[in-house]
TrEMBL record:
This is DDH domain-containing protein. Transmembrane segments: none annotated. Residues 24-182 form the DDH domain. Pfam families: DHH (PF01368), DHHA1 (PF02272). It comes from Candidatus Staskawiczbacteria bacterium RIFCSPLOWO2_01_FULL_38_12b.
Amino acid sequence: MQKKIKNLKEAAERIKTAVKNNEKIIIYGDSDCDGITSTVILQETIQNLPFDTAQGKGGKVDMVLFPNREDDGYGINARALKFLENKAPALFITLDLGISNVKEIEVLNEYGFEVIVVDHHQVLQSIPNAQIVVDPQQKDDTSEYKYLANVGLTFKLAEEILGREFSVNLKNSFLELTALATISDMVPQIGDNKMFIEEGLRSLKHTFRPGLRAFLDILGEGEVLSGEYYKVISALNAAESIDFKNESYDLLTSASPNRCMELAQDLISKTNYKQIKIKEITEEVERRIAQKKDELIIFEGDPAWRLVLAGPVASILYNKYQKPTFIFKKGDSESAGSVRSTKELNSVEAMKTCRDFLITYGGHPQASGFRIKNENLERFKNSLNEYFKNLT
């Protein structure tokens, strides 16, 4: 029998207590498909609790926030801390981020927040001092669920919170989101992930969610369901997070078919534009590395490149050249980027050896990110080359 994820039950009970007591609840989710769908699932789980509250039947999430990766970087950042300074007391729940925000969570504790971290990324040096941490990557988590995307983790949290109140229709609606985000996050399609994908995609053709129905109507239901669901995933990942608000979240939570059609069309247009820019950056990097064939890694950045495009570019280049790939946007004094590698050539472990001069770093072995002062870029590159050289 599969063991339960560490602290999952404790997190579920704490959330139910917050709803029963009409406590303020804030959800802070990552700005990609995995983080956005996780946020939608947890918010709707809380709204579907059978408790009588001040708002009537069901709970309420007082605030939903998403970081602007382009301007502020990944995770709980300085701008978010400034915004949150006067928002406590509240139950503050992170989704698809938080495990590397040790310092920031200490600040939230000082503000008077009670923090629950729900994340699936690798633990770095230490676990944040949150009230509850749910992350299968913790060393003492023996659940064997380390392969889950955050959305799968959140689905299991929803199961724990709702119990017998988890209706078939709500479960299918959540499975649709879980399938798309599990595929998007490129986690292994094994175990529960395989089930999420099969059942979620099967349910997608009957979806009651206006936001997903809009994609099926625009792209063509037959085309999406025959394998072009990647177009839906790309559109959801094309959203911008501005002032802590996110377009894909708005789309997935809107009840208005007309509004959903507008948002879906806008996201599809943004996807098409992104693909053009990704192609341009990829070709530019290939021109640069043509004279660096002997180097063990791809390490390139530019002030003109958008940070949100670094991940897709790194994926394309890694798949083609099979070298650990570091693509970054170079700012005035700092640079931030995305990394793609293999599980064996673990990018997070590689960056751990450089932690003394990195501002932040973290993620998965195969897909991660970093922020660094420009003065340390050459040192970073040399240290990475040395690390991977010692592995070969």
